[in-house]
Amino acid sequence: MAGYNKTSLQPTIFLLLGIPGLEAAHKWISIPFCLVYLLSLMGNVALLLIVKTDHKLHEPMYFFLCMLSVADLMLTSSTLPKILSLFWFNDREIYFEACLTQMYLIHSLSTMESGFILAMAFDQYVAICHPLKHSTVLTPTVIVGLGMFIVFRGAVLLSPHPFLLRWLSYCKTNVISHTYCEFMALIKLVCTETKIRRAYSLIVAFLTGGLDFILIICSYVLILFTVFNLPSKAARLKTLSTCVSHVWVILVSYTPAFFSFLTHRFGQHITPHIHIFIANIYLLVPPMMNPIIYGVKTKRIREGFFKLLAVKSVLLCKVCDSPNHQQR
Predict the structure, then answer these.
(1) CA nearest neighbour of 202 among 153, 151, 261, 114
(2) Helices (H), the chain
(3) Shortest CA distance to 14 belongs to which of 5, 25, 23?
(4) Number of neighbouring beta carbons within 10 Å of residue 177
(5) According to the model, what pLDDT value does residue 7 have?
(6) How far is CA 88 from CA 26, 27, 80, in A?
(7) Sign of dihedral through CA atoms 190, 195, 197, 203?
(8) 93: three-class secondary structure by DSSP
(9) CB 116 within 8 A of CB 123
(10) CA-to-CA distance for 21 and 177, rounded, in angstroms?
(11) Among 87, 151, 171, 177, which is least packed, fewest CB within 10 Å?
(12) Cα–Cα distance measured from residue 247 to residue 255, given in angstroms and rounded to the nearest whole number
């Protein structure tokens, strides 16, 4: 097998297969992938600009939403360029160290995303269950502290992953049946015992995404208990409407994540291309949908988006009307 270090059976390069069985359709599949990536980039950058320029949006929920957008941008940019290069140019090679780095970024950034969604749930809980304490509980210091803790948790808990895979012998093959490098896809190529490494990965997954999801459910149980104790139906509906955007973000983020997790570990009879499609949906769809959900459901963000478009159109008109441009 080409690309191997014979002394250690560690590959110098891995070969990404893409979507097994659908290699001939890679160029067609790349079209929606590319569109989703562009929408994700534009949507999240626009969201960051809107929150930055509109002081009315300088609230805990939108600060956590911006943190989520930054994590989304980093996650998609660490994977999609290589996936598109694979689909368009059959660029299958990825260096061993680059593969481990990509794997670490995917898992650590996904963990950070989960933490930011939990922080948004905590903001909703305080705003609805303890509205008078909201400004004193979620102070700027607390917001920054929570953000730093979430980043630190994702960076530290996932940092052993590259080292768990770095010194193993990959004697089976250096072909990864996937569009990108991730822990379970790499561990399947190893010919030595991996129970401890798999156990660590499962424990970390539970302590991060699993525990976050449980705490989110608990927060919404308390929110619903508070809402249904409100005196009027109108007040209940108005309060619940403030949670709609965040609930959609939870569903969009966690549904493909759980399906991807379960199919990799327990779906041995599921065809490979289903595995890969679910894993790619998990990476592609939430970063695209998060700004769209908040843009559609939040009036202030929607208005900020239209203002941003108006500013860009005015600037474009000024450029077109300038003497230098007309002379050209």
Answers:
(1) 261
(2) 26-53, 60-89, 96-129, 134-137, 140-157, 160-166, 183-187, 195-205, 211-227, 233-241, 244-266, 272-297, 299-321, 323-327
(3) 5
(4) 19
(5) 44
(6) 7, 6, 12
(7) positive
(8) strand
(9) no
(10) 10
(11) 171
(12) 12
Beta-bridge mates of residue 95: 13
Amino acid occupying residue 101: T
CA of residue 137 relative to chain centroid, distance: 27
Contact 135, 230 (CB under 8 A): no
Phi, psi angle pair for 10, to nearest 5°:
-105, 130
pTM for this model (two decimals): 0.89
Nearby residues of 185 by Cβ (< 8 Å), 6 or more positions away? 176, 177, 178
Tokens of 142: 């607390």
Distance CA 279, CA 284 (A): 9
Q: Are residues 82 and 102 in contact, defined by beta-carbon separation less than 8 angstroms? A: yes
Angle CA(13)–CA(16)–CA(18) in degrees, nearest 5?
175
pLDDT in tens, 36-45: 999 999 999 9
Token output for 254: 């966690």
DSSP string of 211-243, one letter each residue: HHHHHHHHHHHHHHHHHTTSSSHHHHHHHHHTT
Tell me the C-alpha distance between 99 and 85, whole Å.
15
**In contact, 60 and 143? CB cutoff 8 Å:** yes
- For 163, other C-beta atoms within 10 Å of its C-beta total 10
Helical pair 26-53 and 60-89, crossing angle rounded to 10 deg = 160
298: nearest Cα among 245, 238, 223: 245
Q: pLDDT tens digits for 143-183?
A: 999 999 999 999 999 999 998 888 888 887 889 888 999 88
Q: CA torsion 199→205→211→213, rounded to 10°?
A: -140
Q: pLDDT value at position 229?
A: 87
**Alpha-carbon span 20 to 280, nearest angstrom:** 13
What's the pLDDT score for residue 230? 85
Token pair listed for 72: 């989304």
pLDDT of 169: 84
How open is the CA angle 305-308-312, to the nearest 5 degrees? 140
CA distance 124 to 3: 51
Residue 188 three-state SS: coil
